[in-house]
Amino acid sequence: MNTKVTLQNPKYQTCIDACNMCAEACESCCTSCMSNQQMVGQMTRCMMMMRDCADMCMMASCMISRGSENAKKMCDMCEACAMECEKFSQMDECKQCADACRMCAQECRNMMR
């Protein structure tokens, strides 16, 4: 069966996709950081921020999708998370996470214009 899906808010699909990708990158990086026995103690704040960022991005994606008037208020966490992840950019996962967070922050700024 070929079903066509009509998006609720296609104008912001790029931002929605960036939020989803950021959440996935944060979850993946956090899991990787938890298994890094040498650095896990130093990365506690970063891991907490990644978890918060992933949750905020998933919520933002839902709110943007449904056209919530409060969606734009959800987009502040990504920049802070990127800065924290960059402290550990020697790890590929942290660099990828920082890049995804920065891209999401930029897409959120674009949405607010």
Note down, in words, how this protein is organized.
- There is one protein chain.
- The protein has helices spanning 13-34, 44-65, 77-86, 92-111.
- It has 113 residues and is mainly alpha-helical.
- Helix 2 (44-65) runs antiparallel to helix 3 and helix 3 packs antiparallel against helix 4 (92-111).
- The longest helix has 22 residues, at 13-34.
- It is elongated.
- The relative contact order is 0.20.
Classify the beta-strand content into a percent band.
under 5%
CATH topology title = Substrate Binding Domain Of Dnak, Chain:A, Domain 2
The SS-based structural class is mainly alpha
CATH architecture assignment name: Up-down Bundle
Based on CA atoms alone, the radius of gyration comes out at: 15 Å
The first-to-last residue Cα distance is 39 Å
So what's the CATH class?
A: Mainly Alpha
Q: Which descriptor suits the 3D outline?
A: elongated
Mean pLDDT: 88
Task: Summarize this structure as a short list of keywords or feature phrases.
113 residues; mainly alpha; Substrate Binding Domain Of Dnak, Chain:A, Domain 2; elongated
Short description:
This protein has 4 helices and no strands.
Helix and strand arrangement:
Layout: H1 13-34, H2 44-65, H3 77-86, H4 92-111
